[in-house]
Amino acid sequence: MKVFVLFCVVLLAVAVVSAKKAKPTEEDKPKSLKKVVKECQRNEATKVDNAVLKKIKKHKPVDIPDNYGDHKLCILKGIGFINENGTVNEDNLKKRVTKKAEEGDDVNAIVTECKDPGKTAQETAIKIDTCLNKHSIDL
Ligand SMILES: *[C@@H]1O[C@H](CO)[C@@H](O)[C@H](O)[C@H]1NC(C)=O
């Protein structure tokens, strides 16, 4: 009985240690796009109708909502392409472009083109999104 209890305590200890180890890496990872989009769409201030987003992406005629820039900014901040202060996070942008680029793509040229900021953080967000879209780089 004593041995069994000891065995259980050891098992529990191992479980606790491995659970603790797993956590930080989970938190270090940038938030997934899916999660970020969900968060931005849950907030009235940054919510844009999905049908409208689809049309914009496909360059179909649609009235661009007033909060479109806020929506994009929310998402690009969430995935780390734009810093809290509204500047472009070139490292993260480059990582993504490198990952998504196809053979023959000039990663540096795309990053240089897409990191060009707008007058406001919202404008910067829309510009980055449009630019990546143009180069077929998914967020
Ligand atoms: C904005 O924030 C980034 C990252 O936190 C920092 O590297 C950069 O210097 C800041 N820029 C300005 C203008 O505050």
Could you describe the 3D structure shown?
- The chain folds into two domains: about 1-30; about 30-135, Recoverin, domain 1.
- Helices cover about 65% and strands about 0% of the residues.
- It is built from seven helices and no strands.
- The N and C termini lie far apart (about 55 Å).
- GO terms for molecular function: odorant binding.
- It comes from Anthonomus grandis (Mexican cotton boll weevil).
CATH topology of the largest domain: Recoverin, domain 1
Q: Into how many domains do the coordinates divide? A: 2
Question: Which structural class fits the helix and strand makeup?
Answer: mainly alpha
Per DSSP E runs of 2 or more residues, the count of β-strands stands at: 0
Work out the radius of gyration: 21 Å
CATH class of the largest domain: Mainly Alpha
CATH architecture classification of the largest domain? Orthogonal Bundle
Query: In percent, how much strand structure appears in the residues?
Result: under 5%
Characterize the main sheet: none
**CATH superfamily membership of the largest domain, which one?**
Pheromone/general odorant binding protein domain
The H/E string reads HHHHHHH
Shape: globular
Kindly state the mean pLDDT as a whole number? Answer: 87
Number of helices: 7
Measure the end-to-end span.
56 Å
- Poorly predicted ranges: none
**Helix content, binned percent:** 55-70%
> Which hetero compounds are present in the coordinates?
2-acetamido-2-deoxy-beta-D-glucopyranose
Subcellular location: Secreted
GO molecular function: odorant binding
Main location: secreted
Keywords: Secreted, Signal
